[in-house]
Amino acid sequence: MAEALKAMYNQEFLRCFGEKVHSVYNPFDMEGFVAAAMDETWDGLELKARMRRITETLRTYLPIRYKEALRVLFAMDETCIGFPYLFFPDFIAVFGQEEEHWELSMKALERFTQRSSSEFAIRSFLMNDPERVMCQMRIWSQHPSEHVRRLASEGCRPRLPWGVSLPMFKSDPTPVIPVLERLKADPSLYVRKSVANNLNDIAKDHPSVVLETAHRWKGVCPHTDWILRQGCRTLIRKADPEAMELFGYANPNAVASLVTGASFSVLPSRLAIGESCDLQYEFCIREGDPVHIRIEYGIDFVKARGHTSRKLFLLSDKTVSGGTRLTGSRTHNWSNLTTRHHYPGEHRVGLLVNGREVASVILVLCSSD
Fold first, then answer.
1. Do 207 and 240 form a contact (C-beta atoms < 8 A)?
2. Going by fewer Cβ within 10 Å, which terminus of the chain is more open, N or C?
3. What SUPFAM superfamilies does the record point to (predicted)?
4. Can you tell me whether residue 345 is helix, strand or coil?
5. Residue 360, in any domain of the structure
């Protein structure tokens, strides 16, 4: 089994980090810092809790004044690069919220995000004063560094994974759009991915906002078109008619007349958790003009309490000529994952074309005992 991500924060890491601090700030008590951070509760702390423990312990062993503590971090941050050092911006989020520190804290987040990422830390500032921080985000959206420009988008995502959600933007994403407008043709793929993910977040609560934005942006440039395709992916998975039409898919409401002779099979149709099955499909496209289709299979997974929840898996996304006969197969593994646990019972598996089910089968999943 792979080692838990939290294990990267261990005694060796803390000692190495402590040596870096001591090299720029001689009074730093490295032994005391490591001992205080890794007290008797350390082993039970998960990743984010360990990160916060480091943040809070570091504050105890740095100069009392916030500005002087930052001078120490600034003196060493060029050697502290990557995911493990997210506690640098976290330090700002925890101890830099006071009004007298605001400008300095923004400069620190701008600086630290170029070494690690301030996307989580900025969210506490957004919760306290969204209007002021979004003004800062608009400034950052024009920054020379792609890391800072990405922060402008990633930091205000309404539903950032691992991050605190932003209920004000889930309710009204209007303040976010001007930032995305400035980044819609960004030369950096790193930034464009963030803009697309932000749009996809918004689409989950306000599909009409994203569709209106897509109509305005479409055709501006290839970079923008890529963002839109990725940003509307949830709407496409849901076969939203307007989104499907916008991206050239055949009308999902016309699938019944588009697809003929659909068949779908699963072998074996009875298996144990941890085993695999083979899915095979076949259908024909009606004669006529070429059509853009999205082929998926959906599994109604049985959950712990007996209800089901469907998850879709992409098989193909392409343009085909009228009269084409399409066949394909896919092996599906039923092993338990960290993100999905399987339960015994009848699982309905459906074949979908442009979001509409055209055939289905039943698979019986048994306990592996």
1. yes
2. N
3. ARM repeat
4. strand
5. yes
Token output for 173: 């994403």
Q: What does DSSP assign to residue 28?
A: -
Encode the chain (369 residues) as per-residue pLDDT tens digits: 346 889 999 999 999 999 999 999 999 999 999 999 999 999 999 999 999 999 999 999 999 999 999 999 999 999 999 999 999 999 999 999 999 999 999 999 999 999 999 999 999 999 999 999 999 999 999 999 999 999 999 999 999 998 899 999 999 999 999 999 999 999 999 999 999 999 999 999 999 999 999 999 999 999 999 999 999 999 999 999 999 999 999 888 888 889 999 999 999 999 999 999 999 999 999 999 999 999 999 999 999 999 999 999 999 999 999 999 999 999 999 999 988 999 999 999 999 999 999 999 999 999 977
Dist. CA 263–CA 351, nearest whole Å: 9
End of a domain among 68, 83, 118? 118
Beta strands at 270-272 and 356-366: parallel, antiparallel or unpaired? parallel
Total domains, the chain: 2
Amino acid at 38: M
User: Is the CB of residue 214 less than 8 Å from the CB of residue 227?
Assistant: no
Sequence-distant (6+) residues with CB within 8 A of 287 are 322, 323
**What pTM was computed for the model?**
0.89
Domain boundary among 118, 144, 168: 118
Range of the domain at 53: 1-118
> Which sign does the torsion angle of CA 199, 204, 210, 211 carry?
positive
Phi, psi of 124 (to 5 degrees): -70, -35
DSSP code string of 146-194? HHHHHHHHHTT-TT-TTSPP-HHHHH--TTTHHHHHHHTT-S-HHHHHH
Supply 115's token pair: 């070494």
Contact 280/329 with Cβ under 8 angstroms? Answer: yes
Task: Give dist(CA 70, CA 58) in Å, integer.
Answer: 11
Task: Enter the DSSP assignment of 369.
Answer: -
Residue 80 falls inside a structural domain: yes
| Residue in the block written with tokens 């006071």 | 98
